[in-house]
Amino acid sequence: MGLLTGISGPEDLRALDLAQCDLLASEIRDELIRTCAPRGGHLGPNLGVVELTMGIHRVFESPRDRVIFDTGHQAYVHKMLTGRAREFDSLRTEGGLSGYPSQDESEHDVVENSHASTSLSYADGLAKAYAIRGEARHVVAVIGDGALTGGMAWEALNNIATGNDRRLVIVVNDNGRSYMPTVGGLADHLTSLRTNPRYEQVLDQVKKRLNEVRGVGPAVYDALHAMKKGMKDALAPQGLFEDLGLKYVGPVDGHDLKAVETALTQAKRFGGPVIVHVMTRKGFGYEPAEQNEADQFHQIGPFDVATGKAPAKGRIWTDYFAAEMVALGRDRQDVVAITAAMLHPVGLGGFAAAFPERTFDVGIAEQHAVTSAAGLAMGGLHPVVAIYATFMNRAFDQVLMDVALHRCGVTFVLDRAGVTGTDGASHNGMWDQSIFQVVPGLSIAAPRDGARVRELLREAVAIEDAPTIVRLPKGAPGDDIPTLDRVGGMDVIGRSGARDVLLLGVGSMAAVCIEVSKRLLDQGIGVTVVDPRWAKPWDPAVVDLASDHRLVVCVEDNGVVGGAGSTLLQLLNEARVEAPVRLHGIPQEFLAHAERASILERIGLTSQALARGIVEDVSALDESPAREWVSGS
């Protein structure tokens, strides 16, 4: 890192000449590849924004001028240029740099912004605040063309256009992709801009010739304006933005630093809201990424630098869903699939290949995805909507009022449910099982292993008069856990000794509870381990099971407040079950990034920690058998 080691902040970057900047760009790309190779990360997007990020920090003065990335996964280069290059090899490791902007790391980071389409709203508010306070500060929002498929971005644009005196520069990072190729009418519009870049040259020629005509005065300006509008619509129809009242600059080659700086400087001088359209290539400068058709290394795991190939790995939870979806598609012609710009990450690539006419990628538009699914259900089909659990939070109202209220048979498959780890607080899928508990008629399934993914997905899709959710954790499931007995709709998966403890393991926590039971048996404590399979609603048979045991323990990979355990406690209280209840789940806090196993250990969701607590609870019962207590932890 020759030049890079000398960059302690943007002021150092501004001191370099263009030739040095070219060398620095190469160093940055090498560092991105070197750092991401052993641990993975959002490599492709950051390779594509090297010159763009350098241009922003050379033209604007962060942190006085505020720079917001949408989404924040494209901010690795920003981190390097704002004093964190020496720490960059700690990226996405516990105690190291976050994979997203972080206020705790640097004054240059405004918001984490890991959920798409929000930057323009942040920018709108900041620009208004600076105008009201009389501060001459610019706000720069870097928004990917994929994020522009989200409706929230257009709500913000509509408001931004009314503030002609606000110093707001919107940089559209147009690489034709969010995770995979961007879809929809907006994508087609931007493609037309990319493929017709001649209008600026034509406009300059017209302006020059008209200015040579004497005596025309204001008529020349009016004619020029009309010709400008007409030519731009014909040669590069960016009227979509100008019709909103926003000044437009571009398209600009995002890998030509001089061109990027020129465009940004023009936008900065304008003094009002400006769109700067920058064309970039995801994965630029690293051939394996550029040649990767699936997602150009959008988010890759560990890989070999020389070849770009990832080491062989076993099947993850998503793979079991992917295979079963294809089988379902063959068995049922009414099953259709919807995703929000994440076809491959959520496991719908195989279904799309087999049934392209029954697969709908709506872009980064979760709310639209859900209500569109309601329409598909009303039309006689059964939609399966596959979305990351954390992103599903954005569509709560649509699930409640558009799907559940109308009793639509829609199945939601929530990938990355529970603790996810290295992507940080915003990506942990720890909220859904609490949020969706309040939706009438909705059922939530939580598979414990690969076999149960297939089983519960089939059961969910069979429900045609209400919404269903199937939760899938991140990573690989363990071996299938056999069912010893069935109580109601619940599986008994472990039974040893006396009926001391009823241990209810929700989803992936069932395997942990099996390990807990072995530790308890070593201490002479009898255990019945049950997988409820459906975490909402609880099977009524759980009441009799709980009544037959001295202590009831529920373990879930979800926030402990309002989750499956909370509704279990309410059910047992209403049934006047006297056995005390212990709830174990994720504490209601934003969890710092770390490996999933490390986080689970820290929050006490390991077999050792759980067994220790249960032994203490049983000992307390032995000492005070008449004691009544209910607790959550």
Summarize the structure.
With 633 residues, this protein is an alpha/beta fold. The protein is built from 25 helices and 19 strands. Strands 7-6-8-9-11-10-16 form a 7-stranded mixed sheet, sandwiched between helices. Strands 12-13-15-14-17-18-19 form a 7-stranded mixed sheet, with helices on both faces.
Q: Any descriptors?
A:
single chain, 633 residues, alpha/beta, seven-stranded mixed β-sheet, 25 helices, 19 strands, 16% strand
Strand order of the largest sheet: 7-6-8-9-11-10-16
Give the proportion of residues in helices: 40-55%
Determine the number of helices (DSSP H or I, runs of at least 4 residues). 25
Oligomer kind = single chain
Roughly what is the average pLDDT, rounded to an integer?
88
Portion of residues in beta strands equals: 15-25%
Secondary-structure-derived class: alpha/beta
Q: Describe the global form.
A: globular
- How far from one another are the termini? 47 Å
Q: What is the alpha-carbon Rg in Å?
A: 28 Å
Low-confidence stretches: 186-207, 220-235, 626-633
Strands, total number: 19
